[in-house]
Amino acid sequence: MFRSLRVRNYLLWFIGALTSNTGTWMQRTAQDWIVLTELTDHDAAAVGITMALQLGPVLVLMPWAGLIADRVNVRKMLMFTQAAMGALAFGLGLIVMLGVAQLWHVYLFALLLGIVAAVDAPVRQTFVAELVETKDLTNAVSLNSVSFHAARMIGPAAAGLLTVAVGAGWVFMINAVTFAGTLVALSAIRVSQLRAQPRAARARGQVMAGFRYVRSKPAIIVIMIMVGIIGALGFNFEIYTLTMATIAFNQGADAFGILSSVMAIGAVTGALLSARQERPRMRTVFLASALFGVACAIAAIMPTLFTFAIALALIGFSSLVFMTTANSMVQTSVKPAMRGRVMALFMAIFVGGTPIGAPLVGWVVNQFGPRWGLGVASLAGVLAAAVCLYWLMRFKQVRVRYAKSWLPVRIGYAYDQRVRALATQEIAIIEAEAQKG
């Protein structure tokens, strides 16, 4: 489960990323809180707009960001992007502490952070392949998710408590400091031990070449459609967790932080389970997306804060199994020289779907209540699972049948019975010949 941590360079990266990810989740929690409670009168749509501005640049910049990741020294580029995000966190913290922050200020910083993050994301994804051997890539991707969601478990709870105790401004300042953790880790990495990946040569039409490459891979297309559906309508965790805490259960910032951390506990569990996989499988992607839809439906009807928190853990678990397996399938099935562009498109669809989905989910919450926002997420999970099942039935000969057992619906390959029958015939022939001879 933890074999990639035996690699010194990966261990340094893991620790640095855990530090900065914790600060990032602290900032996101505090940022959503001040938008909802201090800069607006509990306007969920404003939170959605903030998320859209922070994630929207992905849609425009990711194809070029992926090409950058395929061309440049990714370690040096990561040092630049991490330093830039630290500077933006410091600037936002400064205006909040001075008491001059307005809603448009938060919108502006969210947009600038989104621009830098659009370049940072595919570079991060590509860098993992330089830290470990190919056989450990799935494990390393899963442990990256552990780092991200361990930070998600710690960060929101700490941010909720600190926001109440000292104010959101200090939370942003702490985030600015945490980026130093990643910079120190990147500086300490032994460059001689990195597994240099083939770099894309400069040529015309390389961005479009990335799109053509993805188009030639049907399995990747299906995964990206599923990720787009769930990313746009299902992964708006801040909106429905925040509004359920404040509107449905009448709680404060500390409860919001704790709920986010509880969901992260489930997410870490899912990521650790994914780390045990020898190789990612499409059936795992299908089952995880279906479970995500069911978990969101359960959360929507929970009557108390405690039972809602339990359902959130299941949401976190299923969402991480889904995303980690999908990420690993894409990373391990592409050519190294194309990895940056393909992962950029993957991240653009996943992250870029939120600018479309977050305002819509925020509007649903404003009009019908936070439980209906979870209903939208549930529908997204079920729809994504249906897309995957259709592809498996259409191109992989998978069939769904009814069986009289504790699990009435069975999903399996249509040719399994034929193969079993042929194998039985072969065995019978061999035994008959053996008796004769």
Question: Can you walk through the features of this model?
Answer:
The protein has 437 residues and is mainly alpha-helical. It is 79% helix and 2% strand. The protein contains 17 helices and 2 strands. The protein has helices at 8-37, 44-55, 57-71, 74-97, 103-131, 137-165, 168-188, 206-215, 218-233, 237-248, 253-275, 282-300, 305-332, 339-352, 354-368, 370-395, 416-436; strands at 398-402, 409-413. It has a two-stranded antiparallel sheet. β1 and β2 form a beta hairpin. α1 (8-37) packs parallel to α6 (137-165). The longest helix is centred in the N-terminal third of the chain and has 30 residues, at 8-37. The protein starts with 7 loop residues before the first helix and ends with a helix.
